C-alpha cells in the first residue's frame, strides 16, 4: 500500500504564525464584545401645552369689593324731665369751705390733752426708785436693803419638801415675779429640776409682804424681779 502523504510536505511550517494570528483575532472579537453598547429606543413626545386652546376660554375678571364700615351706634337719647311751672325745684347749694371772720378759731394751746397712763415694766436693775421692802424705809441704799431682806425672808420661810428629800432631789429653782403698782406680788413663775421644789419656791414667794411700789419719773410702775432659790441636801 502506498502512502498518501507527500513526504516533502512540512505541515509544521508557519504554524507559529498562524497561532499568533488566530489569537489576535480571538482577542479582537472578545474586546469588541466587551465594548459593545446597546441603547434603548427613545420616543419623542410633544410635551408643549396647547396655549391657544386655553386662551380661547373667557376668564372672568374679579374685582375687590370694598365693604363699607358699619354705621356708628345711635347716641343715647337725653332724658329731659319736663317740670311744670308751678312746681318749685330745689337748687343745689355749694357751701364754701373758707372760714369767715365771724367764726371763732380755736388755738391749739387751748385744747386740753389728757395724759394716758401706760402700764410699763421697768426692770429692778435700772429703775430710778426701787420698791421699798418693809423695814428699809430709812435706809440710804434701798436697793441693797431690798436684796438683804429678800434673803432673810427666804431663809426664814424655807422648808425642804419631804418627798424631794426621800427621792434625793436637789437643785436650783429660778423664781420670777412682778411687784405691781400697788406693791403686791403677782405673775409668779418658776423653773426648776422638780415640781415639788417649784411648789415650795412658790409658797415662799407668796408670803412676801406688800411693798412700796417702784417709781419711774415719779410714777408708780411694775417692777419685774428674779431670784434663785437653791435646794441642797446635807
From TrEMBL:
Its membrane topology: Single-pass membrane protein
Compartments where found: Cell inner membrane
Major subcellular location class: membrane
Keywords: Cell inner membrane, Cell membrane, Membrane, Protein transport, Transmembrane, Transmembrane helix, Transport
Transmembrane domains' residue ranges: 16-34
TonB C-terminal domain ranges (all copies): 145-234
Coiled-coil intervals, chain numbering: none
InterPro entries attached to this UniProt entry: TonB (IPR003538), TonB-dependent_transducer (IPR051045), TonB/TolA_C (IPR006260), TonB_C (IPR037682)
SUPFAM superfamilies given in the database record: TolA/TonB C-terminal domain
A family per Pfam: TonB_C
NCBIfam families (UniProt xref): tonB_Cterm
PANTHER family per the UniProt record, alphabetical: PROTEIN TONB, PROTEIN TONB-RELATED
Family of the protein in this entry: Belongs to the TonB family.
Annotated protein name in UniProt: Energy transducer TonB
Species this chain originates from: Sediminicola luteus
Lineage of producing organism: Bacteria, Pseudomonadati, Bacteroidota, Flavobacteriia, Flavobacteriales
Amino acid at each position: 500500500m502506498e502512502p498518501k502523504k507527500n513526504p516533502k510536505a512540512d505541515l509544521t511550517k508557519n504554524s507559529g504564525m498562524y497561532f499568533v494570528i488566530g489569537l489576535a483575532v480571538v482577542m479582537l472579537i472578545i474586546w469588541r464584545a466587551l465594548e459593545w453598547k446597546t441603547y434603548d429606543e427613545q420616543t419623542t413626545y410633544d410635551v408643549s401645552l396647547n396655549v391657544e386652546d386655553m386662551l380661547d376660554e373667557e376668564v372672568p375678571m374679579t374685582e375687590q369689593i370694598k365693604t363699607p364700615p358699619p354705621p356708628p351706634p345711635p347716641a343715647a337719647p337725653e332724658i329731659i324731665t319736663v317740670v311744670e311751672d308751678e312746681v318749685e325745684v330745689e337748687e343745689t347749694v355749694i357751701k364754701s369751705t373758707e372760714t369767715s371772720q365771724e367764726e371763732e378759731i380755736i388755738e391749739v394751746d387751748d385744747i386740753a390733752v389728757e395724759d394716758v397712763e401706760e402700764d410699763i415694766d421697768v426692770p429692778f436693775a435700772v429703775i430710778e426708785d426701787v420698791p421699798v421692802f418693809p423695814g428699809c424705809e430709812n435706809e440710804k441704799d434701798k436697793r441693797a436693803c431690798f436684796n438683804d431682806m429678800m434673803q432673810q425672808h427666804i431663809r426664814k420661810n424655807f422648808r425642804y419638801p419631804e418627798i424631794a428629800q426621800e427621792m434625793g432631789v436637789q437643785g436650783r429653782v429660778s423664781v420670777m415675779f412682778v411687784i405691781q403698782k400697788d406693791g403686791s406680788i403677782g405673775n409668779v413663775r418658776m423653773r426648776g429640776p422638780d415640781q415639788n421644789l417649784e411648789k415650795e419656791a412658790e409658797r415662799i414667794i407668796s408670803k412676801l409682804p406688800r411693798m412700796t411700789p417702784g417709781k419711774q419719773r415719779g410714777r408708780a410702775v411694775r417692777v419685774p424681779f428674779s431670784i434663785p432659790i437653791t435646794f441642797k441636801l446635807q
